[in-house]
Amino acid sequence: MNIPNHVAIILDGNGRWAKSKGMPRNYGHIQGARNVEGICRAADDLGIRYLTLYAFSTENWKRPKTEVETLMSLLNQYMHKLLKTAKKENIHVRFIGDRGTLSTEMQESMEVLESTTKVCTGLTLTIALNYGSRDEIIRGVKSIAGKAAAGELKAEDITEEYFGNCLDTAGVPDPDLLIRTSNELRISNFLLWQLAYSELYFTEVAWPDFTAEELKKAVEEYSRRSRRFGAIEEETETGKGQ
Q: Is residue 178 within 8 Å of residue 187, measured between CB atoms?
C-alpha cells in the first residue's frame, strides 16, 4: 500500500454528532478533542510522517460567544494533556495560524509545546489554530512587500519555493491527502496554496467517530488512485504508476 507522507484533516461534525445523540454541541467538541490522540497513533502506525489538523479557523470566531469560549478553554486544557502525550509518543508538535488574537496563556502553552517537542523525531503534528488560508497568504504577501520596499528583495527572487517559505507551513511538505469528515464537500479556506496537488477524500463519518479503521480506509483509497501532475503519472518505487 502506498502511504501518503502528509495527511491533512478538516475535523468536522462535532456539533452535529452531539446533537444526534441529544447532547449539547460542547459535548461533541470534548469527544472530538479526545479523538486526536488515537488518530495520531494510528497515523504513526501506518507510516504517515506528517499530520495536520484543522482545529479552529479564523471564521470560527463568528460562532456563539459561549461556544467559542468553551472551545478556547477546551483547546488550552488539551494542550497540557498533549504535552505529556507528545513526549511519550515522540511527537513533534507545531502550530500554524495567527497567534496575535489568542490569549497570552494560550500562546504560552503553544510555545511550550513547540519548544519541548522540537527534539522529537516521530510524527510531526501540525495544529491549525486561528488559521485561515487567505489570512496566511496575505500575511506572506505583506512580508514579501515589506522586504521589497526595504530593497532587500527583487521581483525575480520571488519563486514558488520562496513564497512557500513565507507561509506558516514553511519546512513541511505539502499534503498528499486531505480528509474532510461529516460529509462536507468543500475546503473551507484550509491550506489553499498547499493543497494544489493533494488528493481529496470526503467521508460521512463525523470526527468523533473517525477511527483508526476510517483513517486506513482513506489511505487505501488514496493508494488506489493514479496521481497525475501535468498529465504525467506519478511513479512508485517500482517505476510504475500507482
A: yes
